[in-house]
Amino acid sequence: MSEQKPFKVEKEGHIAWLTLNRPEKRNAMSRAFFNDLIMHFDNFDKDPEVRVVVIKAEGKSFTVGLDLVEFAGDFNQDGSAGSREQTRQNLFRLQESMNIIDRCRKPVIAAVHSHCIGGGVDMLCTCDIRMASKDTVFSVREVKMGVIADLGTLQRLSYIVGEGWFKDLSLTGRDFTAEEALQMGFVTRVHDTREDLYKEAKKLAEEISSSPPLTVQGIKDVINFCRDESVDAGLKYIAQKNVAMVPAEDTTEAIMAFIEKRKPVFKGN
Q1: pTM for the full model?
Q2: Which listed site, 22, 69, 196, 263, has its alpha carbon 20 to 30 Å from 33?
Q3: What Cα–Cα distance (Å) separates residue 63 from each residue in 72, 80, 100, 137, 195?
């Protein structure tokens, strides 16, 4: 019997739903998980029909983080230079699976329930918008395991919640609730049930996908550029980007729809 794939992909209009699909392991992140993330987000980025991606999960937990059983060998290398270099290359591959979400031109929404631990927080830090059900518990758990988080949390979380909260969470490895995550800005919306969570995630995704897709993608691109560069560099970048993009067919359509008092139809041109 072939192993169950770690994800399911469903498309609904311009929304791609990426569902973590290893519920019997509480969606622990296997090697196949990381490899398939790269494949799926490469496909989403290239698919002109996909305008927004929503990540959710089957089962009792969103994810409990790295599959420690499968990755145990990475923590028990023989100490040789060759094995250490191989571990470093393996780690670069895992990091790329997170980076590709961050680089994806399409906005990514995470709809999280129950447990989101360790590597799950790394993944959420690459998403553009995070939503949760009120039963969700998060943790930057690596410090409790004697490991320095190495898939992006230490590089991204401070931009989301600020340095104070970032150090609090990463140095203690403590659990924090959905309400606390809302308070610090890690999530922007908390819902009573998973049903409500997915309903509102869909509504948000539809709202985003109703705008001109190249404009939405351009905004995400500029936001990420400005996060990593100076204000001056960011201003020069957006000036050049707008000169390259405007006018566009979708811009003309937006103006005409406003004048004609009708709903615009955007084609990504």
Answers
A1: 0.90
A2: 196
A3: 18, 33, 19, 11, 18
